[in-house]
Design brief:
Helix content: 25-40%
Largest sheet: 9 strands, mixed
CATH architecture: 3-Layer(aba) Sandwich
Pfam families: MTS
GO molecular function: methyltransferase activity
Radius of gyration: 17 Å
Number of domains: 1
Organism: Ructibacterium gallinarum
InterPro entries: SAM-dependent_MTases_sf, Small_mtfrase_dom, tRNA_Adenine-N(6)_MTase
Number of helices: 8
Protein name: tRNA1(Val) (Adenine(37)-N6)-methyltransferase
CATH superfamily: Vaccinia Virus protein VP39
Distance between the termini: 24 Å
Strand content: 25-35%
Length: 253
């Protein structure tokens, strides 16, 4: 391991997937199960040799997971926070993935200008979930930026995606169920047809806490509802599908 890539306040997590590792800052925003679920859901329809863009890439967890789960030719992550983007770049270098993954520090609203129109076959995004309300927030805080729509909105993400996706290219998001109407409305408005939808439940007897949705630019209207995904079978026992997604028998989230 190259210790020069890891700062004293950081830790290195073993992703338990093809020897991949991720640098994280424990005092900042660390990835959760939502990033793992998004990478797995997207990997089902990412074709060989395509170019993938991950918006709001954060630590770079989704590009790094997709590098192992797909045969994409190139994966690019865009992150607006400089220190977070630099950390993601160091994780890419730590894994020797510089030829496959690139991290850019930029506002995603500049993506069309930076990459050009119709330049990607697939876009993923694990966006800030919370609308910006009237509460007092530290708008410079890394965790606050990751959780709230301070620097970008859901509309920004879908609008920009509609510009830089190739025709029939796909956008895949994970979000909260209470934003589903907003997501579908924005997708339809910007010419992205919702095609796959999956509800994620903490338990079989609980209401959904997350949704996975994939839309196709200029796609034909037809939405397929995938079977629900349950995180736990019962308290303390993860579902078999979660074990399979993480790729190991014993699992600690």
């Amino acid at each position: 391991m190259n210790d020069n890539l890891i700062f004293p306040h950081e830790r290195v997590d073993d992703l338990q997937l093809q020897g991949l590792k991720l640098i994280q800052n424990p005092s900042g925003f660390c990835f959760g199960v939502d990033a793992v679920l998004l990478a797995d859901y997207a990997s089902k329809t990412i074709k060989k040799n395509v170019h993938v863009l991950d918006l709001c890439t954060g630590s770079g967890i989704i590009p790094i997971l997709l590098s192992a789960k797909t045969q994409a030719e190139k994966i690019i992550g865009v992150e607006i926070q400089k220190t977070v983007a630099q950390m993601a770049s160091r994780s890419v270098k730590l894994n020797g993935l510089e030829n496959k993954i690139s991290i850019y520090c930029d506002d995603l609203k500049n993506a069309a200008e930076h990459f050009g129109r119709s330049s990607f076959q697939y876009i993923t995004c694990n966006p800030p979930y919370k609308k910006l309300g009237s509460g007092i927030l530290n708008q410079a805080d890394e965790t606050t930026i990751a959780r709230h729509e301070i620097l970008c909105s859901l509309d920004d993400i879908i609008r920009v995606s509609s510009i830089i996706l190739k025709p029939l290219g796909k956008l895949c998001l994970i979000h909260r169920p209470d934003r589903l109407v907003d997501i579908i409305t924005a997708m339809k408005h910007y010419g992205i047809e919702p095609k796959r939808l999956r509800f994620v439940h903490p338990y079989p007897y609980k209401t959904a806490s997350m949704i996975l949705i994939e839309g196709t630019r200029q796609g034909k209207p037809q939405l397929f509802l995938d079977p629900p995904l349950y995180i736990y079978e019962k308290p303390g026992i993860y579902s078999q599908e979660i074990h399979a997604i993480y790729g190991r028998e014993e699992l600690q989230l």
